[in-house]
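S.,

As promised, the 6-O-alpha-D-glucopyranosyl-D-fructose run. Input:
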Amino acid sequence: MVYQVYPRSFADSDGDGIGDIPGITAHLDHLTDLGVDVLWLSPVYPSPMDDNGYDISDYRGIDPSFGTLADFDALLEAVHARGMKLVMDLVVNHTSDEHPWFAESRASRSSPRRDWYWWRPPREGMAPGAPGAEPTNWASFFSGPAWTLDEATGEYYLHLFSAKQPDLDWEVPAVRAAVHDVVRWWLDRGVDGFRMDVINMVSKDVAPDGSLRDGPVLGSGPLGDGSASFLTGPRIHEFMAEMHREVFAERIAAGAQLLTVGEMPGVTVEEARLFTDPARAELDMVFQFEHVSLDQGASKWEPRPLRMRDLKASLGRWQAGLAETGWNSLYLANHDQPRSVSRFGDDGPEHRTASATCLATLLHLHRGTPYVYQGEELGMANAPFASITDYRDVETLNHHRHALAAGEDEAAVLAVLARVSRDHARTPVQWDASEHAGFTTGTPWIAVNPDHTEVNAAAQRDDPTSVLAHYRRLIALRHAEPVVATGDFTMLLPEHEQVYAFTRSLDGRELLVLCNLGSTEVPLDPLRADLPPGLAGAQVLLGNLEGAAPERDLRPWEARVLDLAGSRP
Ligand code: ISL
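Predicted complex:
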């Protein structure tokens, strides 16, 4: 399994209130105890921090707020000494606007690096800066248009994210070669692979004359959805195969064990199969977004209740779709998503532990590679932020500003942010009950969740009933049982609104997983006809509540992994 560290919020070693690399090195026991195989580090490169490091100004260094290259090398060595691997975040759809490449590109229309980014003149017949003069109507993911005018040269540059994150133009071979060089540089330093940020956006659908097309208008306009022009674009498979060939293939042939995972908003299961088909040699796995979009309306700012049958239909389709060819990544949370226990579980005191462990069981018993996001293994919940001054994230702050400017009611906007802001994932890891949760001796850059007095690693470490202890057991189970890692997956009870059930089977071994995703008890008898036979003779391999028995009714948020083997005629 892979454990994601968001360095800014993990552990601060020097009291400046910002997590750093020595802080991670000092907490590696936590990862070893958990059974982590791979650590994925969100970006630590030099950055103006407009998007907390997803805006990189130097691909070959470490931001001073996180430490030094020597600190990084020490972390890498310590990770390897513990038998773990370390995967970096590769953010190459865009750079920071403060990257020297962009500085050079923007300097003049005739700069040799002008074409490294997407510069375009205003819409035909319109003056630069006039409303609607942007080259296309695309909305940025972070509110407002995806184009910003550079006054000095009179052209616009494309940024699918913030104005400080200009998109690189991968059509230019020198851009791709520069990216390959960066990847080689880190592999030579000893890293074990990459999580590739929005990598399915690097191929844009550009017409032979260089123009890009408007997308369908969003809501009442004027901005449009350009995603048809940049999600999984025409040359994306070529670019992924090229990177594999240029950078990874030789090292893998020489015996290196490397991991590549592409973050791909909007990717379909059919595309994912192509990306992860070993015969095509592109990527090991992708992060898909279907299951984290089911509780969203027209946008992430319009949350709606999740229907259990939608979740099963979606995850079930991904399990089936990548069963023969390809491989799934499994996640419920990351640094962009609200906390999983608040979103899919029940973070109130009564059901917090049970629902966090129930969700963990569900996820970790699927086929694929599970990802745990820092603090998820403690049952960390959304922050009780009530004012816009509590928030730090560029996406959240931009949305708030744009929504208010559009006349939306602030209380309603804040109510949505309280559910969906990315900052919920970014409050400091709760190490202990002390002030600032043991995260820092200084003032944390974003508030610590006040529930750290109850919910923290120190309180859970030696408590066998804790969320942390349950994660440890789940990870150990996967390591010990081939059926968990690679067994076939069959979804059961597809229409049931509360019980999520499936089997895993391998070489005559069969596991039945039952998860009650609700706060009421569910009697087992009415479900029997749709469950495999042999419940009576089954063994409880793992349960999240004390007193688990194969045929017991499912208590609120109870999860059970039953071993049906031996009970068959
Ligand atoms: O966060 C999201 C949902 O609100 C997504 O739109 C998110 O921006 C998208 O998944 C891309 O995420 C990645 O690239 C962004 C960065 O802000 C995210 O942190 C990163 O994971 C731009 O680099």
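DSSP finds 16 helices and 16 strands in the chain. Residues 307 and 497 are 7 Å apart (CA to CA).

- D.
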